[in-house]
């Protein structure tokens, strides 16, 4: 019953994501073994896809991702993040505040997070902004769109393949000189932050 519920949640969460696989991807950056692809088809929505093969065990990455309170340590420009409710181990809600480049105001919101283990051992996490759950009294801005999907696949010799699909529309008018930062630096540095946090967590356990 629990396994069926988790699979249902995954299907629902995945349906929130755009059809990224059909987009026209362009490799725009490759560094630290991370490749960043940008979608020209959805340029206004800041749609990106990243992939990396890292020398980090699958479980170390899962431990990092499954701690919503640690999101601020790897999500780029995230000032704070904390869990506000939890349906079960596979379905929870996290409030976050994200710093944006001047002159933009900071953004905040509530993310619905679903997690699932596939039969082949692959780990999948989906994040979706819930605009109707954000505190109304705040002076911060809620983005129009924030969707993310992380896939972790176990490889040989303790390595892991990491995929991140990311779509963000911060809302409001965004100056052209800031668009590249949101389109490239936000997802790319989030991927690097996730990898580095997982490696640090693993080393702390060893020592």
TrEMBL record:
Top-level lineage group: Bacteria
Keyword annotations from UniProtKB, A to Z: Signal
InterPro entries: START-like_dom_sf, START_lipid-bd_dom
START domain sequence ranges: 21-182
One protein family per Pfam: START
Signal peptide: 1-23
Keyword Signal: yes
UniProt protein name: START domain-containing protein
Organism the protein comes from: Litoribrevibacter euphylliae
Biological classification of the source: Bacteria, Pseudomonadati, Pseudomonadota, Gammaproteobacteria, Oceanospirillales
